[in-house]
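Hello,

Our lab assistant flagged a job as stuck in the queue for most of the afternoon. It eventually completed. Since we weren't sure the result was trustworthy after the delay, we are filing this so someone can double-check. Below is the sequence as submitted and the structure that was eventually returned. Let us know if re-running is recommended.
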Amino acid sequence: MKPQTEKRSEPVMKFFTPELFIKFNSPDDVVADRADEDWEAAIREYRSHLEGLRDQMPSQVKELAGLSLHDAELLARELPIERFLALTEIQPFPFWFGFAILSVKQGDEIFSLFYVLWDRVRKVLEAERKKRLKSAGGG
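-- returned structure --
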């Protein structure tokens, strides 16, 4: 069962933030050019961070970290969620678990990535995307 917390934590992206992505795709050339420089800096910082962790990674994680799927075509996305009922007094409430499967194609190779989910996948609605874009200075 997922441990309970007092306050929901928000995931923190250190390198390729939603705000940077929005600025990078801004229709304003000045904003987009500045974001392009920031994006290149984020790439360097990410690679340096990843390299510092490489010795601690299992071989499968090293292989995954070496993949560049930036231009891969998304073939399928599955988000099955399974609900379990409590079977013991220790686990008095129902709980769920979920996983995501992403299948992508790059060149002649197909990769399927399996993720165990900590929480349900949420979509950012168009109104929220526009709000982020406006606050990031991109429109």
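-- support follow-up --
The delay was a queue issue, not a problem with the job. The result is valid. DSSP finds four helices and four strands in the chain. Helices lie at 18-24, 29-53, 59-65, 126-135.
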